[in-house]
């Protein structure tokens, strides 16, 4: 239900939204700081660890940062409850269990193939605890306004571009509707002339239409060609007024036919 409450995105909006860019920058900063401090200064905090053990803890911490960041990225908005509806998403739960199981198996049984050594309980707690920092970091990033991560010129340009694109699409759609209404108006005028004309002798005396008039009567739109990206908008926006105009054009024809039959 929360997806239905989200505002729709415009047709030409970017695949990566501003909130996603903000989260990418924020998580990158947090993860780089954690990994660099643990890798280059881990022996100062844990002097009893060997070099191979420290490298394994760094690798394990990096993976757990990504695992918790997956939970953090379940939301694309700025709301803080990232666990909302997680139990109803069976695919997500299966993926998380598989990732945790594979990472545990790599640490305990990877050995020389993955250049790791088995870790004890303290080292596992350190790895998982540092990886858990992705969740509070994500909440902090959501509370920070976008202008602190993304320049204001980019934010203003994105908003103006979306507004101009919507206005341009609507202008093109309205232009197509006007062309269709003019076409049906010409059809209605020709039908009136045909029904009000005398017998075949008078019809034979009428001058045949010129080539230019024939082309205009058979072409519903004489405006500039529209881009292919607007075909869907034109089709959806002109079918209703087109049917209304067609019914309006044909109604005098039917009434005139009935009046001629009564006479």
Number of domains: 2
* Secondary-structure-derived class: mainly alpha
Low-confidence stretches: 200-206, 217-224, 226-237
User: What's the alpha carbon Rg, rounded to whole Å?
Assistant: 34 Å
Spatial separation of the terminal alpha carbons: 63 Å
Tell me the number of strands. Answer: 0
What is the N-to-C succession of helices and strands?
HHHHHHHHHH
| Major sheet description | none
Shape: elongated
Percent range for helical residues? over 70%
Protein model, in words:
This protein has 263 residues and is mainly α. The protein folds into two domains: 136 residues, no CATH class; 104 residues, no CATH class. Helices cover 71% and strands 0% of the residues. The chain is built from ten helices and no strands. Helix 3 packs antiparallel against helix 4 and helix 7 runs parallel beside helix 10. It is elongated and about 105 Å long. The two termini are 63 Å apart.
């Amino acid at each position: 239900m929360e997806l239905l409450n989200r505002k729709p995105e415009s047709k030409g909006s970017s695949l990566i939204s501003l909130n996603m860019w903000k989260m990418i920058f924020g998580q990158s900063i947090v993860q780089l700081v954690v990994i660099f401090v643990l890798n280059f200064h881990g022996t100062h905090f844990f002097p009893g660890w060997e070099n191979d053990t420290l490298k394994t803890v760094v690798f394990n911490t990096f993976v757990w940062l990504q695992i918790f960041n997956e939970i953090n990225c379940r939301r694309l908005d700025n709301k803080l409850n990232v666990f909302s509806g997680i139990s109803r998403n069976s695919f997500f739960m299966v993926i998380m269990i598989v990732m945790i199981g594979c990472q545990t198996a790599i640490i305990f049984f990877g050995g020389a193939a993955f250049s790791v050594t088995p870790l004890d309980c303290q080292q596992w707690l350190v790895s998982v605890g540092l990886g858990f920092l992705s969740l509070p970091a994500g909440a902090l990033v959501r509370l920070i306004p976008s202008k602190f991560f993304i320049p204001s010129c980019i934010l203003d340009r994105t908003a103006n571009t979306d507004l101009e694109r919507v206005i341009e699409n609507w202008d093109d759609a309205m232009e197509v509707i006007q062309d269709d209404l003019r076409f049906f108006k010409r059809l209605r005028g020709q039908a009136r002339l045909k029904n009000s004309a005398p017998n075949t002798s008078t019809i034979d005396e009428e001058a045949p239409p010129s080539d230019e008039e024939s082309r205009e009567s058979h072409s519903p739109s004489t405006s500039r060609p529209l881009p292919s990206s607007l075909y869907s908008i034109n089709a959806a926006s002109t079918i209703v007024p087109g049917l209304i105009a067609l019914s309006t054009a044909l109604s005098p024809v039917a009434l005139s036919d009935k009046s001629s039959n009564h006479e």
